[in-house]
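Changelog-linked ticket: acetoacetyl-coenzyme A example.
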Amino acid sequence: MFELLPKRAQEYRQRARQVAESAVRPIAAELDRTGEYPWPVIEALRAAELMGIWIPREYGGQGAGVLDLCVVVEELSRACGGVGVAYAVNALGSFPIILGGTEAQKQRWLPPVASGEKLIAFGLSEKASGSDAGSLRTRAVLADGHYRIDGDKKWNTNGGAASIYTVYASTRPDRGSRGISPLVVEKGTPGFEIGKREDLMGIRCVPVHELHFRDCRVPAGNLLGEVEGRGFGNAMQTLDRARPGVAAQAVGLAQGALDWAMRYTSERQQFGQSVMSFQSTQFRLADMATEIEAARQLVWSAARSIDEGHAGASKYAAMCKVFASDVAMRVTTEAVQMFGGYGYCRDYPVEKFMRDAKITQIYEGANQIQRLVIGRALTKEAAALGDTLAVKVEHPPAAETAAEETGS
Ligand code: CAA
């Protein structure tokens, strides 16, 4: 493949590939079976100086971009989707601070995440507010220099493993999404409990938990940015930056499944020849490889649009997530099919790729929400086209239309 990655991203990719092959692939099946957190991988990532690379240099990070983050996530996910998200969710958790924190807040919470000493998680979703994030019910009330938080969060990835949590709560319920504020809550704060662990289909080494807040008091200074009501915009901007990471996870999973499908079909003999030598197999592999490459290029271009501050970045982030996750689901399912009965059992890793891939169509905004974001952007673009296109849509008079519809 013609190399389109800038030098820095190539270097990150190389380093991530080494960690994936030496520290992730050998234990991926075991992690899936036991559901244990991949602490040895976190250590290997720290040693390779890959933790927190997206954090600005002044806060201990490497000032890397979303593109760099994506290439690392892709390489890790190629070996294990669970490890890919265990790493990427630290970006999701720290973007709210990078985007909305004061200087003092960044100095306080970012350096330990940059070094990998502490993990961080993101708390937005609740039982009754998933896609409709603006309707969240967790409350934060300011009194005596503290916010008192009450409520519950759902689907908290890295829950329990993380030491720092960015949590969205309503400080003004009468203002709807404009009354939402982001707060930082540290593990161990009285009134903050890690709840039930979800029993998931895939990404099984990553703990996904409920979080409970009961009369949980944090200092007023834990309100990100010190101004209430900016939480929803902060969450949306965060998701714009993080969704390419989910897309990169999907590309890695698809590539990982394709690697196994190529290997298996070239070795498996049926009817006196390798399965890969059948043209029908080659055509299927060709489609898989082509779709993966298209998804990868879309992820890279979306990531670059964010790194370069392009105005349409939200749309591209949504596009790459939709496209790459749908590709991952098609490719991993096809890989299972190519393995036949072996694909359906745990002796081979392809069924894990398929289970891990499914979540990429769901989390950080279900794909229907991504299509909504894209559709809204297109609606604005259509309005902006104005009279530049010489298309005149004729609207018949209302009476005529009604007559046509009733057939009279
Ligand atoms: N950037 C900045 N601001 C934005 C924005 C963006 N991308 N999108 C919307 N906003 C602003 C709007 O400008 C508007 O501002 P004003 O109130 O000042 O006018 C405000 O936010 C409300 O915007 P909308 O009317 O468009 O909001 P909406 O209620 O229609 O919702 C939505 C939009 C796209 C559906 C949004 O709710 C959404 O993204 N939902 C999915 C949430 C999601 O992805 N959740 C998964 C979280 S991940 C997780 O919790 C699990 C984990 O650990 C991985």
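Closing comment: Example verified and attached. The first helix runs from residue 7 to 24. The chain has a mean pLDDT of 95.
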